[in-house]
Design goal:
It comes from Paractinoplanes rhizophilus. The longest helix has 19 residues. The chain contains 16 helices and 21 strands. The N and C termini lie far apart (83 Å). The strands form four sheets. The protein has a six-stranded mixed sheet. Helices cover 30% and strands 22% of the residues. It binds iron/sulfur cluster. Iron/sulfur cluster (SF4) binds next to loops.
Length: 548
């Protein structure tokens, strides 16, 4: 057959693969506003401008690119203007949403506070932050109502006692969480604190790692008593049959939208090598992490595409220059450990875990706590990622007196299940992304459930979040609440929650399958929330008794 004279249909030109903005693949040109801002000026440089210009010139002197971008690298976010409802969160411009005051996050790596540090935070809270102080779910303390004029003096006071706000927020290595009982637990074989210290001293504030694709969360601790699997990198204690105690390496966890739990790389890391391996993982994130789209810029997306085998290979070949040692999986707890109550330390003293309500404290309360701690012979306090606090080193004969003293300042070491199990993120009171109120609602919820179901003795965790960002870990609670607008019975849009059920066990065991189920249609208005939880709890109790 003669060849047709009709020209062949032009074949589509192969589409050039669109980069995800990975530096290691040559995509160095910033692909969005955040990347541009970081390239224009290393965010750590903003400190000098705060000290020399903005603190003197006041809020209105601040360059918007610094205000809404680089300030975060020093723990500063503008707080939400009072009175703006959640329905307007998504439609207002940043300048319409923000107040002229700041949230200041103090990073407390490993959650460890000395008495001097506790008193310093309490003093700053009372003098500069309208007595605000919230314990976060990453062992930080957040202050509110901070004026830019006061920030240099706050830094001076914090740094004088060894605290800092450096890289407490921003696209950089955030606070390192760790076991709140590191160094004192009878169950711990190796204290991870030296590795935390070394990472802080060597890498925090280092411009080499201050421009990451997005935030980078780390956890280091022998015990799995933190939500280690919700971190970008995590080291959990394990005994190697040949080499002895060391740490099991997990990478790629992160909740928020598209939640994913961290995965094991099957590698055993001795304590002394944690900082080097940590640097390798953060290096991979910096160089290969996706920067084009903010909502794909966490390490979990890279891990999802690469898989654990490739991730480990790149880590070994390109960053460490050696193979890691294969290691066994650690034993994981059956359920989350919050350390509430009285527990023996390995030196024979005791630690006492107590809880405020949904993490809310105040400078006044922390100052009273410091006095109480000292009166009972201790000089150490720890914060937990469940918004609780521990007093360490308490002699046997001072325990009951301490518990009574804590109760007198509204910190409860023998709390109801409801107070113990409920956490809340910052929410609409201060957070510009929030859709609903969380802290006050959490307090009301606990109070109502304590009245209505006073004798309830189950473990039910309730994590209240003001928006889908899941800062208080929506997906890994028994009852996870994600703030959103919902319809009430009258057909009006009101504050409410999407409900996720049954995620807590999966969290403890590190199983993605254990994420709470987001059941279609499972929503409640905020007003109906207490009744809703009450019904769930009543059904749970009925199920439990019919099963026995
Ligand atoms: Fe703000 Fe949403 Fe995070 Fe709550 S979950 S602190 S509302 S961003």
């Amino acid at each position: 057959m003669a060849p047709s004279s009709t020209p062949a249909t032009p074949t589509a030109r192969p589409r050039k693969a669109r980069g995800e903005g990975q530096w290691a693949l040559g995509h160095r040109e910033p692909l969005n506003g955040n990347e541009r801002s970081k390239k224009d000026d290393n965010p750590l440089n903003v400190r000098a401008r705060i000290e020399n210009i903005y603190a003197k010139g006041g809020f209105d002197s601040i360059d918007p690119a610094d205000l809404r971008g680089r300030f975060r690298w020093w723990g500063l976010y503008t707080q939400r203007k009072e009175g703006i409802d959640g329905g307007r969160t998504a439609v207002l411009e940043p300048e319409e949403l923000e107040d002229k005051f700041f949230m200041l996050r103090v990073r407390i790596d490993g959650g460890a506070l000395s008495l001097d540090q506790l008193r310093t935070i309490a003093g700053i809270s009372r003098e500069f932050a309208r007595d605000s102080a919230d314990i976060t779910d990453r062992q930080n303390i957040q202050l509110h109502w901070v004026r830019i004029e006061d920030v240099p003096e706050i830094w001076r006071r914090l740094e004088a006692v060894g605290l800092q706000t450096t890289e407490a927020c921003g696209d950089c290595p955030r606070v390192v969480t760790g076991s709140p009982v590191a160094g004192i637990s009878v169950d711990e074989l190796v204290d991870g604190t030296p590795a935390i210290r070394e990472i802080i001293d060597r890498y925090i504030g280092d411009p080499k790692y201050s421009n990451l694709p997005r935030k980078f969360k780390t956890n280091i601790g022998w015990l799995a008593d933190t939500p280690y699997m919700a971190n970008d990198v995590s080291f959990i204690g394990v005994v190697h049959p040949e080499y002895g105690p060391g740490f099991d390496l997990w990478v790629g966890g992160g909740l928020s939208t598209n939640p994913r739990l961290a995965e094991r790389l099957g590698a055993w890391v001795p304590l002394a090598e944690i900082p080097e391996v940590w640097e390798g993982v953060v290096g991979i994130f910096r160089d290969y992490g996706y920067r084009r789209l903010r909502n794909r810029a966490r390490l979990k997306f890279l891990l999802a595409d690469w898989g654990t085998a490739k991730f480990r290979e790149i880590l070994e070949k390109e960053y460490l220059g050696r193979a890691l040692i294969d290691g066994p999986a650690p034993e994981l707890p059956e359920k989350p450990i919050d350390h509430i109550g009285v527990h023996k330390q390995r030196d024979g003293l005791n630690y006492v875990g107590a809880t405020p309500v949904v993490g809310r404290t105040s400078g006044t309360q922390l100052a009273k706590l410091a006095d109480l701690v000292e009166q009972h012979g201790s000089r150490r306090v720890r914060l937990t990622p469940y918004q609780k606090l521990l007093v360490l080193d308490v002699p046997d004969d001072r325990v009951e007196s301490l518990i009574g003293g804590l109760r007198a300042i509204d910190l409860e070491a023998r709390p109801s299940s409801w107070r113990r199990g409920t956490m809340a993120c910052t929410g609409i009171e201060y957070c510009k992304l929030a859709i609903v109120e969380t802290k006050k609602r959490g307090e009301e919820l606990v109070s109502r459930l304590e009245q209505r179901l006073a004798g309830f003795d189950g473990d039910i965790s309730i994590n209240i979040n003001g928006c889908p960002n899941a800062c208080a870990r929506t997906q890994v609670a028994d009852i996870g609440l994600k703030g959103q607008l919902v319809m009430n019975a009258a057909g009006e849009q009101v504050e409410g929650f999407q409900v996720h059920l049954g995620g807590a066990l999966g969290m403890a065991k590190g199983e993605t399958a254990g994420f709470g189920r987001k059941v279609r249609g499972l929503k409640t208005t905020a007003e109906e929330l207490p009744g809703y939880v009450e019904r769930l709890a009543t059904n749970y109790l009925a199920d439990r008794s019919s099963a026995t």
